[in-house]
Amino acid sequence: MGADRPPRKERLLHGWREDPGSSAILTDIDGTLAPIAPTPDAARVPGETRELLERLSRRYLLVAGISGRKTEEARELIGLDGVVYFGNHGFEKLVDGRVEIIPEARPYLERVQELEEMARRELGPLGAFVEEKVITASVHYRNVPREVGERCVDFVRREGERLGLRVTVGRGVVEARPPVRADKGTAVRALVEEYRPRRALFMGDDTTDLDAFRELERLREEGLLEEMLRVGVASEEGPPGIVAEADLVVEGVEGVADVLRELASF
Ligand SMILES: O=P(O)(O)OC[C@H]1O[C@H](O[C@H]2O[C@H](CO)[C@@H](O)[C@H](O)[C@H]2O)[C@H](O)[C@@H](O)[C@@H]1O
């Protein structure tokens, strides 16, 4: 019997392929769709991945990009109108072509700006890159020596805490955000409540993607989803939870492309 069983990936994706009209495909972008690049502006979503997403967005109930990037950049990277976009780790979404920041986060705008400016002054001269993101702050240390990277993390942790912000560490980046209940998990919940899929999957590679994984599980426990799937993208840099909490582990963006091909093979 074992020999005739379809491979694990195929079995796990069966429900999605059989019933695309009730199925949601939710995905992170950097490190999941787009290979990690030395700098944020050098990242690209491969052409084949975009074509697959385009086909999927026409067939499935929902395809959404839920990114740590600013929403406009998430939109630009995927480049498809048929996809729904959330940016800044769930603090923003694209509504009718306009970016909406969640209202609870607005009172923290100045503090995030303050942190960004301090980081630019203190860490910029050491080679760190401070991305301009408005409602969250990201200090990139991929291209600096290890000790400078540690200094970036310490600095953002210390100053972020002083300003009352929440700090997370990702792949070559330390980020600060308003301490309100918004993350990739709240974005997943909002989409499930709006589109009412029977099943939803999320694909991700980094720290803030774990919020989406955990929310999917809660949604299934609450009965809002019949089925869910957490696709973890393994990498040397990613947090261990991405593999430990995933139902399906794939290797890098090539593994993600395989999942998309499988979902698109109808
Ligand atoms: O949630 P995501 O869509 O994965 O966004 C997470 C962060 O991605 C970007 O930074 C990462 O990708 C860069 C390009 O490959 C890389 O140079 C950097 O080291 C990574 O951390 C983006 O620039 C950040 O704003 C996102 O938060």
Automatic annotation (TrEMBL):
Coiled-coil ranges from the UniProt annotation: none
Record's catalysed reaction(s): alpha,alpha-trehalose 6-phosphate + H2O = alpha,alpha-trehalose + phosphate
Gene3D superfamilies recorded: HAD superfamily/HAD-like, Trehalose-6-phosphate phosphatase related protein, domain 2
UniProt cross-references to Pfam families, sorted A to Z: Trehalose_PPase
Domain of life of the organism encoding this protein: Bacteria
Pathway info: Glycan biosynthesis; trehalose biosynthesis
Enzyme class: hydrolase
The keyword Cell wall biogenesis/degradation is annotated on this UniProt entry: no
Swiss-Prot/TrEMBL GO biological process terms: trehalose biosynthetic process
SUPFAM superfamilies xrefs: HAD-like
Gene Ontology molecular function terms on file: metal ion binding; trehalose-phosphatase activity
Keywords attached to this entry: Hydrolase, Magnesium, Metal-binding
Cofactor: Mg(2+)
EC number: 3.1.3.12
Matches recorded under InterPro entries: HAD-like_sf, HAD-SF_hydro_IIB, HAD_sf, OTSB-like, Trehalose_PPase
Record-stated family: Belongs to the trehalose phosphatase family.
Protein function: Removes the phosphate from trehalose 6-phosphate to produce free trehalose.
Descriptive protein name: Trehalose 6-phosphate phosphatase
